[in-house]
Amino acid sequence: MPKIVADSSTLILLAKCSLLQIVCDLFEVIVPKAVKGEVASDDLVKNYSDAALISDLLAKGSIEVRSPGISDTLPRPISLHKGERDALLLALALGNTLFATDDGKAIKAARFFRVPFIVTPKIVVELFRLQEISFKKARKSLEKLSKIGRYSPEIIADALVTLMEEKNGKTNNNKDTGRPVK
Amino acid sequence: MAKPTTIRIPEDLLNEIDQFVQESNLDRSTYLREVLRKGFSLDKQDRLFSKYLRKELSQMEVCQELKWDPWEFLAQLKSRNLHLNVELEDWLDATGFSS
Lengths: 182, 99
Known about the structure:
heterodimer; A: 182 residues; alpha/beta; Rossmann fold; five-stranded parallel β-sheet; globular; B: elongated
């Protein structure tokens, strides 16, 4: 099962798109302790339904909490907040793991360490490509990432084009194989 | 406890403030303290968001500075009509599940 180490930004956006549960079912989702504190503290759970969902998945073990287990400092000039930093270090330590983040600075740091990263719109398109969600669900999720998630219009437009290409590819393949399209 | 400080203010601005304070029956010092507090808060937010958009600060670093949670951060982005600091290049370079 592929491993994903997520920071707060991605956990929240996946929850907002109603995709967090399915991602946890399909992949091993891991977060450092600091991220748990940032998105699932008692106060946050009282105020936000997304936080309550994340807290529930943590309690059930669908989201695993792990310590980076290596030096907890990043070399200068790279600096991040504790949750983002520990998530990146954890992905680095685990190896063969995707670092899921929707923060530009964290992505910059991931590039520096050559840690493969994924952003939420890519997760949406990939879930459709793997036939885990329908086209309609994927499109709605991308629209939510635009409106609620504050993703830039150019990224959402490109993601929608990629989604359409995936759909057309599936349709064409199905003409050949007769397999159903979700 | 409030501490005294000295700043130079352009005469025309000071005259405008004095006139407004008189017309509104406000205490001049209390009013100036309040304006300074409000202005500082807004300016701090603007400057931190600029740093966020330039990727000099991460989302959670901004949250820590402003004592916000990540949901408040998203709400503030919306109210300012700003977007996440993830760029098209980041989306294009993102790794897929099968790669």
